[in-house]
Amino acid sequence: MLLSRRLYPAKAYFSYWLNAVDEQSLHGPFLFKFYNEVLKPKSPSAAFEPIEKLRKALLKDKRLIDLQDPGAGSLVSLSQQRTVASIAKHSLSSQAFCFFLYRLTRFQQPEHSLEIGTSLGISAAYINKASSGQLTTIEGSPAIAAMARETFDRLACQNIKLIEGRAQEALIPFIQTTPKLDLVFIDAHHSEEATLSFFETLRGSLHQQSIVVVGDIHWSAGMDRAWQQLTQHETVTLSVDIFHAGILFFNPDLRKETEVLWC
Question: 15-29: b or e for each residue (b if 16 or more CB lie within 10 Å)?
Fold first, then answer.
């Protein structure tokens, strides 16, 4: 079973490789602009050096912590005790994906953002660096949440609120007291049921200009099914598959379609 889960992303990538296109195949002005401003740029900035220096430190951190994982589990270890280095290696968003989140946040300029699945706080630091708006991030493991707080302190992050608790349980009181969300990054649990449940819970907090990023849409067959259902949702217009994530748009001025794009 575990071997099958590990092989699934490789099979999915072959399909992505066959179908992905670049800006040469795009015709709509919005999607062309989005591709060239958010997906195409690759060059890192010196401004990210403190974050990446901390990432390197986490990758060498041998502290052992008790991991409470309420999600779909790890493809690497079934142990509930892991080193910080192991969590950093297998759970953090890659440097390239964090650059994408930064560019996306700059593109969107959100007033209110939400991340579901904080991990050690690296991706949140990138989102925070790109915007002066408020970012709320939710983490289910108390030990990992404590590490994320260390990350935010060491990077002097401002306007980040970390909520500790199981995501679905924490979401309900959060959205009851929060204005509309402009940017959402779903990166927790990685199961079909949880992903669809998060989206349904968030629906009332989204608006026509919101952007929702769903991480690891090809992580498993269940996540693939969840992504397909989300692209067909009545509120979703444009959806973009960049393999490591899916991006959902709700603007009624955009044509309802799904694009598979290189990133």
Answer: ebeeebeebeebeee
The tens digit of pLDDT for each residue in 135-156 reads 999 999 999 999 999 999 999 9
Orientation angle between helical segments 49-58 and 142-154, nearest 10 degrees: 140
Residues 145, 164: Cα–Cα separation, whole Å: 7
Which two structure tokens, joined as six digits, stand for 79? 């142990």
In contact, 116 and 188? CB cutoff 8 Å: yes
Q: How many CB atoms lie within 10 A of CB 62?
A: 8
Contact in structure between 39 and 262 (CB atoms under 8 Å): yes
- Write the DSSP assignment of 69-123 as a string of letters: --SS--SS---SEEEHHHHHHHHSPPHHHHHHHHHHHHHH--SEEEEE--TTSHH
Q: Extract the tokens encoding 195.
A: 């992903």
Summarize pLDDT for 19-78 with one digit per residue, the tens: 999 999 998 899 999 999 999 998 778 899 999 999 999 999 999 998 765 554 544 445
d(CA 233, CA 231): 6
Closest CA to 162 of 182, 134, 183: 134
186 contact partners, CB below 8 Å, separation of at least 6: 116, 117, 195, 198, 199, 212, 213, 214, 215
For tokens 């992303």, the residue is 9
pTM: 0.94
In order of 20, 152, 165, 201, 257, the CA distances from 125 in angstroms are: 29, 7, 20, 25, 32
